[in-house]
Structure formats: structure tokens, C-alpha cells
Amino acid sequence: MPRPRNADFDERILAAASALLAESGYDGLSMTEVARRAGVGKPALYRRFADKGELVLSLVIAASVPPPETDTGSAADDLALALRLLAESLADVPRAALGAQIGLAIAEPEASRRVVERAIGPANQQMQRIWERGVARGELRSDLDAEVALTAVSAGVIHPVLVLHWDPRGAWIDQVIDQFLRGVLAR
After folding, report:
1. How far is CA 58 from each of CA 11, 73, 112, rounded to the nearest angstrom?
2. In the chain, where are the structural domains located?
3. For domain 69-184, which architecture applies?
4. Residue 12: what are its φ and ψ, rounded to 5°?
């Protein structure tokens, strides 16, 4: 019978990886040193993350999500904050790591499942909570599928930053957010 997952392990691993990435860059990041600094065994680390690319992808996505307690009182403001955080979290990410992970997720269903489960899933859950609050308050259209709407706008942020190399703090992000909100806000 497998041991239950320890959420504290994940937090310690991500904190150690973040510190090491800042100190040594992607090329200097080692899974051995992450495990040592996090105070976890290498097997526990590798059960959670297949390699350092997957670990860095999880870091980037974790940095892109507002904390669960973030509630400005406005769905539009919460969504705008989340989209800005997403764009900015991609700014300094090692492109080689993300490119390799995205390519692997496209090519291998198991890699895709891991990326969705470990990295994208928690971010989507937080965005879903923001959406549900907005619908409950009557701010967002209840006839829209949240997953479709949020996937579309996320792609509208991720593609310009990662593929087109647009400045994530540029004026274009305000236009993307404005166009998205015009489509989802209740009339």
C-alpha cells in the first residue's frame, strides 16, 4: 500500500527548488541538491517530479496563481490579477525547461497527465473558485463553461509570452484582459 502524500513535502521541495533556481539558474539546478535542501529523500522527490524540467514547470505555474485567500470583492479584479500573475510568472522562466516539458506533454499522454495533475490542476482549481464566486455574485455569466473560458484566456496570455516573446508587463495584457472580461461579465 503506498504511503499517503505529504503536502508539506511539496511545499518544501518547491521552496528549495525556487531558491536553487535563483542561486544557480536552470543549468545549476540539481535534483540531488533540491532533495537535500528540502529534507526529503530522492525517491520522494522523483515520485512527485520526473525531472528538473517538470519541477520548474510546477514552480512557474505555482507562481502564477493568486493565493487562495485572495478575494478583492470583484471577479473582474480577481481574474485580472490572476492573468497578470500568469504573464509575469513566465517572464524569467528557463525557456528550454518549459519547451521540453510542453513538448513531452504533447508527445506522451502520461507526461501530459502528470503536468495537468501536478502543475496545471491546482492553478485551474484556484481559477475555478474565482469564477464560481463571480457567478454566485452575479458578476459573471452563468451560461458560460468556466473551463472553456479560462482555457481560452490562459492561452491568450501564454502564447504571446512564450511563443511571441512579448513583454508580460506590456500594454497588450490589459487589452487581453479587457476583451476577455467583456465576454464573460454579466450584462
Report:
1. 11, 28, 13
2. 1-48, 69-184
3. Orthogonal Bundle (1.10)
4. -65, -40
Closest CA to 68 of 160, 164, 132, 149: 132
Report whether 58 contacts 101 (CB < 8 A): no
Q: Which residue has cell 485551474? A: 124
Give the residue from 97, 35, 27 showing the smallest Cα distance to 61: 97
Of 167, 138, 154, 158, nearest in space to 74 by CA: 138
- pLDDT tens digits along 5-63: 566 888 899 899 989 988 988 888 899 999 999 999 999 888 888 888 888 888 877 77
Task: Please say whether the beta carbons of 9 and 40 come within 8 A.
Answer: yes
Give the model confidence (pLDDT) of 101-159 as tens digits.
788 888 989 888 887 877 777 778 888 999 999 999 999 999 999 999 999 998 999 89
Please state, in angstroms and as integers, the Cα–Cα distance from residue 124 to each residue in 27, 44, 116, following that order: 29, 25, 9
Task: Give residue 47's identity as a one-letter amino acid code.
Answer: R
Q: Which residue has the cell 511545499?
A: 11
Q: Is 150 in contact with 141 (CB distance < 8 Å)?
A: no
Sign of CA dihedral 72, 78, 80, 83: positive
Model pLDDT, residue 82? 87
The hierarchical CATH code for the domain 1-48 is 1.10.10.60
